[in-house]
Amino acid sequence: MYKSLIIYLILILQCFVFKQTTAQSNCPPNIDFETGTLSNWQFYIGVCCPISGKLPSQAINGRHTLMSGTALDYFGGFPVLPPGGGQYALKLGNSSAGSQSESAEYSFIVPNSINNYSIIYRYAVVFEDPNHSLAEQPRFVVSAFDSTSNQIVNCNDFLYISGGVLPGFEHSLVDNSVLYKSWTTSTLNLSGLAGHKITITFESGDCSLGAHFGYGYVDVSCGLFQINGVICNNEPNFTMSGPSGFENYLWYDSSLTTLLAQGEQVTLNSPSQNTTYKLVIIPYVGFGCPDTLTTTIYTSNSTTSTLYNTICQGESYEGYTTTGIYIDTLTNIAGCDSIRTINLKVNPTYYLDTIITKCFDETILYDGISYSNPVTTNIFHTTTLGCDSITHLEIRNTPTIPLDLGPDRKICKGDYIIYNSLPFVSFLWNTGDTTANIEVQKTGTYTLQATDQYGCIYIDQVAIEMIPKPNIRIFTSEKAICKNQEIVLSAFGGSNYIWYLNDTSNSLHYGDTLHANIKENTNIILCGEGTNSCSNYDTVSVYIVSCCDNIILPNAFTPNGDGINDIFKPIGLLKYDQYELKIMNRWGNEVFHSNAQEIGWEGNHKGVPCIMDTYYYFLKVKCKTKEELIKGDVLLMR
Asked: For residues 299 and 13, what is the distance between their CA atoms, to the nearest angstrom?
């Protein structure tokens, strides 16, 4: 049984242009996969080993896979995206064996104006060696081909085979039979090939016996090595770093005649002017050729400046918003300090709060703009100082007060409706009334125009139809009876009669006829309905008299001139020998006096109608030899 053999390569590719420009400006598009796609790359599938039978293919997920995220490699424990690299990488191959191979190619033209041009890549390799022959082992191949000259680019054809002598390998902590090499850097030196079309190829292959696999990762990032640096004129020294992963680093002056230092990171004395340095990077034996990188260090002077500016309130200048003198220590683009003094003046912004209250159906004009709905807005004006003057305008609708006179209706004649139209402050009815309340007593349409405290006008109307009341009447043959004598009363003019006896019993009776035994002076009220559902009433007073002398005094009268119950006086046909009637008000003042039996009280005092109230009578009579004083009270009703 074969031992497993795993090749795991992670390659980070980087394009460097060694002149006084940034690397990014001359990097081929998407060589670093940073568009998040595999565009501009060509892909192939084939067999191994050797890698052959290559067929063009679309990118196949699982064999040509775009990677992202923070995952770690299972065997090596390093991230699938290289530290300091981009956000995407290309994975070539997979963990399934089967003598498969995967290839990825990228073609580009070296810029015509650049002679020093290199592709720098980092890689990590993981092997599990099954002890096959080298020709059968899994592998990873990096090569470059010059299509312009139809030649392989010298010193840029690398073959990594499991089991080979590769420096820096360690055993995997997951599987001791697995060897891995963490991040390593190499270069493809394309110097002197300006204007040439170059194709770089990355290939991975399983073992030829079909039981062991190999795969790798490829990424491009145009910024791993800083080509141009800046130092401040007050710094005594500076530090430069080369790309990691090489065996040796030699730092020279621009003419490559003086060796200044050795090592991946060096510290040198700061130059007094812009200075160019050469870095010779030497790879491990068998993994590339030496290459020369160029970097330029620029010196930057600290500066002192004074600025004057005027702004408006609410604006900001260099982070300051109030009048004053500000002294800042700034770091320029080169990282050097500069002293800046700002003399700032802030002109004020004037604010005006305006609140306008309007009626709900009103349109108003403000500052040339019509407003029909509530709104809150700011209106900007420019003052003579060039700053804004702001009017905070709030337009409100007045509270809407419902004016509702109710539905059109019918009422019985003689009844009335009181319309209470509060809480308005002024009123105008079509009847001419200007009061809040009116009494409606005749047929018609009543319209009200009401004004609230804001001057808003509301209008409503209601139609009223008056319906005649029935003529309800009581008929009786007598009104003065003896105590406990039965009296018979009959109703006329309507239906559904209700009789009410206003005595101590306060009893109700129903029907067209009333039979009642009266024990005291009693007012009898009859209510009845007409054919139109209107009701009306009639009243009669029944008096209890002393049957020996027939003295009867009513307990109420209505001196309204209708000829019915208009005069208060004793009722009876007997002739008294002496007669005296006095009427007193509730304060004991005499309002009427008579010695004539035929003269009764009409409810006046000295020709002026008395108010509706209870009055007290004193009747002194003499019949033959008998004298009698009768006292009581009477209700004057109007």
From this structure: 30
- Coil, strand or helix: which one is 134? helix
Instruction: Return d(Cα 121, Cα 140) in angstroms, integer.
Output: 14
**pLDDT by residue (tens digit) across 524-541?**
898 999 888 888 899 998
| Residue 23 reports pLDDT greater than 50 | no
- d(CA 325, CA 220) in angstroms, rounded, equals 49
Q: Which residue in this structure is represented by tokens 């090749």? A: 7
Task: Compute the distance between CA of residue 16 and CA of residue 632 in angstroms, rounded to an integer.
Answer: 132
Confidence of residue 64 (pLDDT cuts 50, 70, 90): very high
Is the model more confident about 447 or about 188?
447
pLDDT digits (tens, 9 = 90+) for 419-433: 665 678 889 999 898
- SS (HEC) of 166-230: CCCCEECCCCCCEEEEEEEEEEEECCCCCCCEEEEEEEEECCCCCCCEEEEEEEECCCCCCCEEE
| Distance, CA of 529 to CA of 413 (rounded, Å) | 13
Q: In the chain, count of helices (H) and strands (E)?
A: 0, 50
Rounded to an integer, the average pLDDT of 612-634 is: 83
**Between 22 and 387, residue with greater pLDDT:** 387
Q: What is the CA radius of gyration of the chain?
A: 60
Residue recorded with tokens 């394309």: 190
Q: Give the span between the Cα atoms of 216 and 63, in whole angstroms.
A: 10
Residue 146's nearest CA partner among 111, 193, 189 is 193
CB atoms within 10 A of CB 115: 15
Dihedral pair phi/psi, residue 354, rounded to 5°: -125, 125
Per-residue pLDDT at 229: 63
Q: Mean pLDDT across the stretch 71-89?
A: 84
- Residues 566-604: tens digit of each pLDDT: 999 887 645 566 789 999 999 999 999 999 888 899 999
Total residue length of the chain: 638
Q: How far apart are the first and last CA of the chain?
A: 133
Q: Is 414 helix (H, G, I), strand (E, B) or coil?
A: coil
pLDDT surpasses 90 at 615: yes
Alpha-carbon distances of 29 from 33, 41, 633, rounded to whole Å: 9, 10, 122
Rounded distance, CA 264 to CA 445, Å? 106
- Paired with 355 in beta bridges are 394
pTM over 0.70: no
**CA-wise closest residue to 579 among 566, 596, 602, 555:** 596
The strand pair at 248-253 and 485-492 is best described as unpaired
Q: Could you count the other beta carbons within 10 Å of the beta carbon of residue 183?
A: 20
Q: Is 510 exposed, middle or buried (0-12, 13-18, 19+ CB in 10 A)?
A: exposed
| Residue entry with tokens 């009333």 | 514
Query: Measured between alpha carbons, how far is 489 from 486 in angstroms, rounded to an integer?
Result: 10
Q: ω before 49 within 30° of 0 (cis)?
A: yes
C-alpha closest to that of 208 among 106, 97, 74: 97
DSSP string, 596-615: -TT--B-SEETTEEPPSSEE
Residues 6+ apart with CB under 8 A from 240: 229, 251, 265, 266, 268, 277, 279, 295, 297
Q: Give the C-alpha distances (Å, rounded to integers) separating 557 from 311, 353, 483.
A: 94, 70, 21
